[in-house]
Amino acid sequence: MAAYLGGSAIQTIGDNPVTAYRQLVQQFAKDEKGNTVSPKEASSQAKAVFRKAPVTASMSGLTPRMIGVLIKRVPKFGFLLGYSFMFGEEDPGFGAATAASILSAPFFNPVRMVEKQQRAFMKTTGVEKPVAEIFREAAAKNFKPLFRGTIPLMGHSLASATLGLVGQPRLQKYVQKELGSTTALGGSATNLISSAVVSPIYVVVTNPLSRLEVIMQTNSMKGKSIPVTAAIGEVAADMRKFGMAGIFRGQGIGVAKAIVSLTLFHEGRIFLTNMMKDRNKTNGWA
User: Fold this and answer.
1) Is residue 85, in this structure, part of any structural domain at all?
2) How would residue 87 be classed by pLDDT, with cut points 50, 70 and 90?
């Protein structure tokens, strides 16, 4: 658990700029008047925010994301590793990934909501929204807005756990087995290769779900919530107007984010796991 959490912390810091940029590309799919804009124009507007305040934009949402490493990952990894332990799995399997995704979603949806709300209005204000203000707005509605987007998050989390936490390590072992004996590729290289193979699949599966999350979680909490059906309608309208590019806004940067995230997470996790194992052996605990 400690190694998984440490890997998540390393991943979160490393991929935050890419995460922020991708959200803005998806969020700017509509202008201030509610009209859908082209993917190219949305990308241009996201870049303008980063040019105007590069450090602020890159680090926006990092505080709740780091807090979320505990709030989100403890239940997710707890269910994942707990399920594996109970059913005698040496490594987490797909059953563990499914259980972890469904059971942990209500715990970390509020963190994702706060993270998105922090950078949701940077286009007009130029600064991230204070967390205290976000919680005041949520408290006015009995904190119900913090749970917007939970349904698509469950699907997103399932794909993330299945491909990232289960599929990538298994693929890495296969790559290491097939290539390790005939080439000089080490663990880090096979980790990067595995992440590069898994990431495009992951992004194709999760990008539409991520769009639904962004639509449901970036409108003002003072207004009415956007139901899943309405969010799907927005994505469908985007597709009718701009084709597949409308559905997969931010996919290119999403692939880059997934490769960086997966690689950093597993590199950190493996490094910390080995360090802890060595410590146990040195102290005679194992």
Assistant:
1) no
2) very high
DSSP, collapsed to helix, strand or coil, labels residue 250 as coil
Range of the domain at 166: 2-71+112-278
Per residue in 41-52, pLDDT (tens digit) is: 888 988 999 999
Q: At 32, which CATH number? A: 1.50.40.10
Tokens of 236: 């469908």
Q: Which two tokens stand for residue 138?
A: 């949520």
Closest CA to 104 of 20, 8, 199, 227: 8
Query: Which helix H or strand E contains 11, and what residues bound it?
Result: helix 2-27
Amino acid symbol at 201: I
Closest CA to 36 of 228, 225, 241, 213: 241
Phi, psi of 36 (to 5 degrees): -75, 130
Would residue 234 count as lying in a domain? yes
Give the pLDDT of residue 185: 61
- The whole-number pLDDT of residue 64 equals 81
Q: Are 213 and 249 in contact (CB under 8 A)?
A: no
The count of C-alpha atoms lying within 13 angstroms of the C-alpha of 36, restricted to the half-sphere facing its C-beta, is 18
Tokens of 27: 């969020």
Alpha-carbon span 63 to 171, nearest angstrom: 32
Q: Of the spans 37-46, 135-144, 205-214, which averages the highest pLDDT? A: 135-144
pLDDT at 142 over 90: yes
- The per-residue DSSP string of 27-54 comes to HTTB-TTS-B--HHHHHHHHHHHHHHSH
Q: Which residues pair with 36 in a beta bridge?
A: 30
Number of folded domains that form the chain: 1
Is residue 87 assigned to a domain?
no
SS3 248: coil
Express each pLDDT in 257-283 by its tens digit. 788 888 899 999 999 999 999 999 999
Q: What pLDDT does residue 250 have?
A: 65
